Amino acid sequence: MLKELTLNLTYVASTDENGRETKKTRRFSQVRLDLTDSQALEMKGLISELTGEDYISAELTELKLVK
């Protein structure tokens, strides 16, 4: 049984003088359990507009209850 769905959005926070990137992730927990991949990508675009951050990936993580 699916218990919780989390949307993880990753962006590049900074780049050092050697070109190495520091990545950070924003997590949005308890999103709708029936969220589709296309809706997750749409949310990624909307949140990007609000925050001004350019997200390089979107990931859905499922938490399931195992009895």
TrEMBL record:
- The DUF1659 domain is annotated at 2-62
Question: Which Pfam families does the record associate with it?
Answer: DUF1659 (PF07872)
Q: What is the name listed in the Swiss-Prot or TrEMBL entry for this protein?
A: DUF1659 domain-containing protein
This chain's source organism reads Macrococcus carouselicus
